């Protein structure tokens, strides 16, 4: 639990920088987002396609918009990781320096997010296939199956994504190649994998129920939009900061940012 508190403490102290990096993709993805569609019960005759459509990010909306969201999230993650690495390593908080170091973080961040995206789409097909097995069942059974399969889908997806959570940190801090950084990151968390899994999942366990409840209790689109945006903002900032917090904890290195905050532009 200590790394959860350390992560939120870092976000609180450096929120202005992390907000500026995270806001563009968060504000864009929150437009028209509806989590209730994922839990809607498909018709029996089209369970596979309806389930796959609700899970897969390849359906609905403009493909260019979805591509833009992905690119913005990659940039957001790369800039945030670069900021965290520099802030924790030498204690300097700078808005512009992460842009100058973008080449160092962009490739590994893009690789990690691309593998997670591929895994997501493969699991979406598998989850849809499993749900299709219940297509002949009664409505009540299909309702329960939809909820359970959707929950298991995201829990397994996060289990898969946890394998890559330390990849950027070890690639950047240790000077490893992409393959070496991935191997070192997996090895570093192997003895504490499920603890890392829970700590990484924690903000989603808090924000996702709130985001789902917004569909039930609020009819104004602007209210739901703000709740979704806030939820995605917390998730995005946390998942970008947590790996670097964990890296310094595992490696035992002293964090320079725990001293006096250095204002923007200072060295």
Q: Sheet bearing the most strands, described? A: none
Radius of gyration: 20 Å
End-to-end Cα distance: 32 Å
Shape: globular
Question: Would you kindly provide a brief summary of this structure?
Answer:
This protein has eleven helices and no strands. With 267 residues, it is mostly helical.
Please tell me about this protein's structure.
The longest helix has 31 residues. The mean pLDDT is 85. The chain has 11 helices and no strands. Helix content is 75%, strand content 0%. With 267 residues, it is mostly helical. The relative contact order is 0.16. Helix 2 packs antiparallel against helix 4 and helix 6 runs antiparallel to helix 8. The radius of gyration is 20 Å and the shape is globular. It has one domain.
Offer a few descriptive terms.
267 residues, mainly alpha
Secondary structure topology:
Elements: H1 2-13, H2 15-29, H3 47-55, H4 63-90, H5 97-100, H6 102-132, H7 139-162, H8 167-174, H9 178-189, H10 193-217, H11 221-251
């Amino acid at each position: 639990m200590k790394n959860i508190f350390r992560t939120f403490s870092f976000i609180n102290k450096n929120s202005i920088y992390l907000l500026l990096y995270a806001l563009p993709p968060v504000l864009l993805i929150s437009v028209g987002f509806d989590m209730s569609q994922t839990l809607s019960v498909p018709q029996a005759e089209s369970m596979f396609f309806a389930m796959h459509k609700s899970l897969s990010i390849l359906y609905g909306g403009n493909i260019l918009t979805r591509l833009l969201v992905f690119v913005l999230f990659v940039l957001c993650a790369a800039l945030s990781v670069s900021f965290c690495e520099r802030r924790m390593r030498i204690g300097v908080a700078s808005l512009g320096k992460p842009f100058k170091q973008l080449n160092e973080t962009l490739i590994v961040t893009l690789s990690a997010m691309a593998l997670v995206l591929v895994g997501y789409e493969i699991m979406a097909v598998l989850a849809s296939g499993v749900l299709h097995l219940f297509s002949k069942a009664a409505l009540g059974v299909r309702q329960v199956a939809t909820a359970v399969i959707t929950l298991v889908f995201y829990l397994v997806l996060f289990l898969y994504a946890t394998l890559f959570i330390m990849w950027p940190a070890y690639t950047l801090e240790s000077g490893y190649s992409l393959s070496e950084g991935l191997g070192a990151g997996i090895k570093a968390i192997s003895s504490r994998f499920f603890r890392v899994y829970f700590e990484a999942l924690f903000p989603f366990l808090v924000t996702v129920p709130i985001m789902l409840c917004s569909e039930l209790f609020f009819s104004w689109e602007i209210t739901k939009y703000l709740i979704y945006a806030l939820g995605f903002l917390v998730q995005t900032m946390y998942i970008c900061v947590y790996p670097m917090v964990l890296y310094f904890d595992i490696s035992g290195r002293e964090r320079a940012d725990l001293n006096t905050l250095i204002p923007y532009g200072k060295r």
